[in-house]
Design goal:
This protein has about 325 residues and is an all-alpha fold. It contains 15 helices and two strands.
Length: about 325
């Protein structure tokens, strides 16, 4: 009897290998971390904060659709439907990953659980010529953030990449080597900056002990975008004399893409400038860098922006 009691106690102390916590830990270690996914921190934070408190010790094969629905209902109420859909995507990855490793497990997630429609989430905001003019005027009096905004428009690169540009990344010929993480997508690796953009960069002060072109505090790059953007928007409205539709820094990529198209840049070239993957057979077999074509596209973009600014002055 004593031996049996010890055996039961030991069994209780052993970690359950198929609880949500155990499967999530395996997924993070063997899939997310090993593949060095860019979204690793976001996935881990969402699981730790929103899922483990609810399902942590629950056997994963006892999680039903109703459990998923209730969890998403709570997230949608607290953080909105987009946050719920993001969590749903993370959970789907975990369940699908586990399903490939277990004979008797089936994911409880089915089509139709999303809280928003993809078409509703697609942004279509482009800045028009008048807004680009106002943006350029305000940027000229907005210090580091204003210079950052100009380069974001003139290069069509993502906010994080522009903000983290270092002096050593830009050589004397204007070639910008863009640091990328393993498996990172949406980045063109290197671009040849047009003179119009180089002038903006070279006018930035070089701050001792800070390696960044758009320097922030304590040796870091610029941050606190929401605060700067709020003030920037107010200045734009004052410049224009009327209200404007809300826009985000990411919308500058779409605006740049549209401007390039208006100057005759081929769609596949502007897609390469943005760092988007080229679909189909062409994307697989055509391994040419199109570096001169991308450089020409950015020169055309710069000339277009300059004409818009000069036309409205």
């Amino acid at each position: 009897m004593a031996a049996e009691a010890v055996s039961k106690a030991e069994a209780k102390s052993q970690p359950k290998l198929h609880t949500f916590n155990a499967v999530a830990d395996q997924f993070l270690a063997m899939h997310v971390e090993e593949l060095q996914l860019r979204s690793a921190k976001e996935i881990r934070r969402a699981i730790d904060k929103k899922v483990r408190p609810e399902w942590g010790d629950k056997e994963i094969d006892t999680i039903r659709r109703r459990d998923v629905t209730r969890l998403l209902d709570g997230v949608a109420e607290d953080s909105g439907p987009v946050a719920a859909d993001k969590l749903l995507a993370f959970l789907s990855k975990i369940f699908n990953w586990h399903e490939t490793r277990e004979d008797d497990f089936s994911s409880p997630i089915v089509r139709g659980m999303n809280r928003t429609r993809p078409k509703d989430r697609v942004r279509k905001r482009n800045l028009n010529d008048e807004e680009i003019w106002a943006l350029w005027q305000v940027a000229g009096t907005s210090g580091t953030f204003g210079a950052f905004i100009k380069i974001a428009l003139l290069t069509a690169q993502r906010r994080a990449k522009v903000a983290s540009m270092k002096w050593v990344d830009v050589d004397e010929n204007g070639n910008w080597e863009i640091p990328c993480e393993p498996r990172e997508k949406g980045v063109p690796r290197d671009i040849l900056l047009p003179t119009f953009a180089l002038d903006v960069i070279r006018n930035q002060p070089v701050i001792s002990e800070n390696p960044y072109v758009f320097a922030g505090k304590s040796g870091a790059h610029i941050a606190g975008f929401s605060k700067y953007k709020t003030a920037f928007d107010k200045a734009m409205v004052k410049h224009l004399g009327h209200e404007i539709q809300p826009w985000t820094i990411h919308d500058l990529r779409r605006t740049a893409k549209t401007l390039m198209s208006s100057t005759g840049v081929r769609p596949d070239i502007s897609e390469r400038v943005l760092g988007h993957s080229i679909p189909g057979v062409e994307g697989i077999y055509d391994q040419f860098t199109y570096r001169p074509h991308r450089a020409n596209a950015l020169r055309r973009l710069a000339r277009k922006v300059r004409r818009i600014v000069e036309k409205h002055e």
